[in-house]
Known about the structure:
- Chain C: This is ABC transporter permease.
- Chain C: Belongs to the binding-protein-dependent transport system permease family.
- Chain C: Its main location: membrane.
- Chain C: It holds the Pfam family BPD_transp_1.
- The complex is a heterotrimer of chains A (about 300), B (about 325) and C (about 325).
- Helix content of chain A is about 70%, strand content about 0%.
- With about 300 residues, chain A is an all-alpha fold.
- Chain A starts with 7 loop residues before the first helix and ends with a helix.
- Chain B has a single domain (about 10-260, about 285-320), classed as 3-Layer(aba) Sandwich (Rossmann fold).
- Chain B contains twelve helices and twelve strands.
- Chain B is α/β, with parallel strands linked by helices and about 325 residues long.
- Chains in contact: A-B, A-C, B-C.
Amino acid sequence: MTEPLTDPVAAAPVAKSRSRRRRPSFEIVIPGTLLALIAAACLLAPILPGLPDPNLGVLNGGEGESRMGLFSPGHLLGTDALGRDLLSRSLHGGQLSIIVGLGSVAVGLLIGGTLGIVAGYAGGAVDTVVMRVLDVFLAFPSLVLALVVATYLGPSIPNLIIAIAFFAIPSYARIARAGALSVRERDFVLSARLTGARAGHILIRHVTPRVVGSLLTYGLLICGIAIITEASLSFLGLGISPPTPSWGSMMADGKTDLSTAPQIVLVPGLLLFLTVVSLNLLADGIRHRLDSEGSSR
Amino acid sequence: MTTTPPLLEVENLRVVFDGVLGSVTAVNDVSLSVDRGQTIAVVGESGSGKSVTARTIMGLSTPPGRIAEGSIRLAGRELVGLTDRQWRGVRGSQIAMVFQDPMRSLNPTMKVGTQIEEAIRLHTDLSKKQARARAVELLDAVRIAAPRRRVDEYPHQLSGGMRQRVMIALALSCGPELLIADEPTTALDVTTQQQILDLMGELQADMGMAVMLITHDIGIAASYTDTVFVMYAGQVVESAPTRRLFTDPRMPYTRALLDSIPSLDSPAHEPLPAIEGSPPDLAELSAGCSFSARCPRATQTCLTQRPALIEHEAGRAWACWHPVESKEAS
Amino acid sequence: MLRLLGRRLLHLIPVTIGVSFLTFMLLNLLPGDPALTVLGEGATPEAVEAITEQMGLNDPVLLRYWHWFVGALGGDLGTSLNSGESVTTLLLQRVPTSLEIMLLAQIIALVVALPVAIVSVRRPGSLFDRFAGLTAFAGVATPPFLVGMLLVLVVAIPFGLPATGWIPFTENPVMNLRSAFLPALTLAAALYAVYMRVLRADLVTQLTQEEYVTTARAKGVAQGTIIRRHVLRNSVFPLITVIGINMGALLGGAVIVETLFAVPGLGKLMIDAIYQRDVVVVQGAVVVIAVAFVLINFAVDLLYAALDPRIRHDRASH
């Protein structure tokens, strides 16, 4: 008999903590709220009052001289070199980030998650083959893979999503596989198998629900990486075609005027930063929550 | 019994763990003493507070655990309230400790010799070379063959029993006055257990230190100790000289513990009596005796009033409203 | 342990072949005609047909892969569609520059992350710890091109450092380091964030859960010494693995940073080739990057095995 040396606290007040209703923690509420606000502002941008058309430049002078500074009349955050409203472009650009972020998470989750669960549950040769093939994908630096795929597929939103989702598939598969492996030998799955349940039924009813939590939490992180990857592709001029606004291409546009008009880079940059930081903090908060619930069970 | 003051005196020690959902008293009003050269056992189930008591005496209780009350005196010196720096002077040099699992309690990526030398160099003025020579001597003293080779090995290269010998060598490296052994044999197999306990007994006789043996196995306590303290739910419920505790237990809990030891003359194929129920949740202790829920002798008084640990006879104390009748009296 | 190494080495072969095959397929099955790249958009159909035949583009794709693979084994990665230069030569020119920046970035990231993590765990929850945690989150959430532009804004412009351009080491070592500084610092930001978080988390886990820490405390060792002498050496192992895994992000980041700072490295070569649809160069660069990633992770495993006594000594006992 080994006696684990734990604090009595960790073990003792379990019964209470379950009966007491959990208050939502700041770790989850603050990034969650921030994300909701950013998403709402971006998605509602087309109908927000007083926001100019993102692609309509106001030319008042030669090329490059149409830029307006912060707090210009009609343009709260000023305009870019073509006289286009920065705030409006940033919010519209956010739509692309949201679509690509969620889209690539969904695609990666579906493909990677399914592969991982099947590989982990089936084991043996299926497992080996699937994981070896995924190892090959994992050997590509994610951005390089996305670059190549995006270039040759051509710039459209579905193609961007596919290019970016590529890198997420192996990591999803690994997480799902680890989860499926750990569940596979547990009593309830064994008893389901012994009572003659079909593999498909066991996978859907018993294995999947137990893997979904960690996959979704990881999805938040992947969503952040996807948004950064999209911005990077746009920054390199390999994302969505201009003039459709994207955070990455806006920052690339602002690169030449960095010393005189840093806001052109900083406005979309700050939005991007806040979005990805919130996604990371939210993932962290949820993981803490899951961990503490897991340990008190 | 002795006229000189005891080496270690713990008085009314209360250790509390502060949690988000309230505090838990892990050690409640514990008093015990150890004389120089004496061996005592603190016996109890897991969660009885015996390990927390031991760690608190070592100054190893860390937040959220804290000493709420009480005093710990070593050779007359109060330890409660020492600064971190002062504690470090006590730990390893005056009090040393051997832990349960020798695989986990040695640093896996450090040579065993280095781990012993570190302790020696912290508490003595020995040079690196002298410390190393001393480490070899110590390994030899704990009966490790080829100590010169073993000092340069890593814990995973040693067997479980050898690792625990290394832990003992480590603990003895600075000649402590008190050695606390926290379940030192629990992780070992039976034959190794015996060897380790014998070794500790011999080394104790040689070095004249006191030993505090923390164990859940009352059988081990029987053969190696002078005095036994029985703990239950954070409290000492009975203390007595070992022989008398075994022949004549008074607290029903002690009695139940003793009854659950298999012996050669107990009839074969008959289930050993086990204690019904499980220890109480420390967060939800009632006002009465903490053993009352499992006690066959419990009355209304036991449920509402907590019995104090009272010295009823010279050298022995128990906390019980309805003690088991003494066999010696009848 | 030798057997483990052998297995890993065997594992390298299919992954390397898979990587090159996948790249080849991706680049050849996707739309875009290499013949047009060579000749330009206005080429006559006859000319296109001729050059397609000459380049072997009418062969089945598997046969073309086989030809390419045999060439690659002999160190011949083909010739650039645009310049006609040997891809191998182009890559060899560019690799050292990228390596220098990445190595510098690793050094900067580790030199900052180690002490920050160590100080953080001395007092978990302290102001310093919280601030360090925020910097780590910020580092993960900021894409490298944004970090780069911010650095240009707050470092290069005020201090008059060169914002773009590259001076080779052989030409002027001091100026070389100056021109490498900002790109390396940019790459280091994200790495720092990852290393700091991983190291801090592992230090905390070890400090709170490992019994050998209690033993060290029972010996009378001070907390700071416990962290530096006992815990850090055990926490280094997960960190080594993380360093290997992050080589991928680093290689991807290099593409962006080299473009942003106009550094003539492997990433810039690849991006330029992508702009020019120079499939052969893209392919060479991607394969080299992917194989390098696989090899680096193999080297990391070796390093791990060489450093960790628990693995190192298995050789002696088995």
